[in-house]
Write a structure and sequence with these properties.
Strand order of the largest sheet: 3-2-1-4-5
Bound molecules: adenosine-5'-diphosphate
Strand content: 15-25%
Largest sheet: 5 strands, parallel
Number of helices: 6
Number of strands: 5
């Protein structure tokens, strides 16, 4: 991709894939850090993950799009995708895949996935970005449990996502 003419800028595009069920501030932190490194960041919302989800694809897209608008992230787009991340990355002309790292527990899986992606698409680089300390313990699974039990998620999700989580909880019986 290197060009001899230094004045010709190569557009840097990265894809940030995930199931984002729902987007939380840890995800947002990674997206903001990645958006500073590239011309365009595409948040790729996995439409058919191998997990049981609380939010539909449309809901997960809407929550990310609202988050991007609220945060004023001008170079971030949100799109759904199915199939292999590298196929989506090639389709949108991305040079890199972004993943967020929390602790050692994420590392092994992310490492395996990155090496597999490199084997499948050697021209695409995986960028691992380390999360802010505040979000080290945040996971979508844990926050859904806290929401279910009526806990306070202030500082962990945006107000929009907190509201969406609230609406997903079964109505409490008033008997
Ligand atoms: P997946 O289903 O691909 O694991 P997730 O929606 O759980 O997707 O996460 C998407 C990406 O965000 C992954 O790279 C994951 O490591 C990262 N991530 C998840 N939680 C955090 C967090 N608290 N801080 C930073 N990155 C995170």
């Amino acid at each position: 991709m290197r060009r001899d003419d230094a004045s010709e800028h190569i557009r840097r595009v990265a894809v940030y894939p995930g199931s984002f069920d729902p987007v939380h501030r840890g995800h947002l932190d990674i997206a903001k850090r990645a958006a500073r490194l590239v011309d365009e960041l595409i948040v790729a919302v996995y439409a058919t993950p191998n997990k049981k989800l609380l939010f539909s694809t449309d809901e997960r897209l809407r929550l990310w799009r609202e988050t991007v608008a609220e945060e004023g992230l001008a170079n971030v787009q949100v799109e759904p995708f199915e199939g292999l991340v590298i196929d989506f990355a090639r389709h949108v002309g991305a040079q890199a895949i972004v993943r967020g790292l929390r602790a050692v527990t994420d590392f092994e899986l992310e490492f395996q996935q990155a090496l597999m992606n490199r084997k499948l698409a050697p021209e695409i680089e995986t960028l691992m970005i380390i999360t802010d300390l505040r979000y080290l313990f945040v996971s979508a699974t844990l926050l859904k449990e806290v929401a279910h039990l009526g806990g306070d998620l202030d500082g962990i999700v945006t107000a929009t996502v907190a509201q969406a989580l609230k609406e997903k909880q079964p109505a409490k019986s008033t008997d």
